[in-house]
Amino acid sequence: MSERSERLAALLRERLGATHVEVEDESHRHRGHAGAASGGGHFRAVVVSPRFEGLSRLAAQRAVFAALAEEMRGEIHALSMTTFTPGEWGARGNGR
User: What sign does the dihedral 37-24-72-61 (CA atoms) show?
Assistant: First the structure.
């Protein structure tokens, strides 16, 4: 995990009470892209948080974007994510 990925993962744990976070820096795949030229990175994330309970998938993703709002203004150009509640994550065979 890159230093930027680790920092973003730590922010998601802190700001969303996430119990599991994976952040992959995919910026190297986007060299030459206009957003990459400005320094903003491309990231893919998996976020598991009890705060997603009762939220639609879209609302959970909005919560992630809100948690990283400041970083979205510069450090992050693009963020692809998958969100899960702890129950959904466990049902997929994770955390056992």
Answer: positive
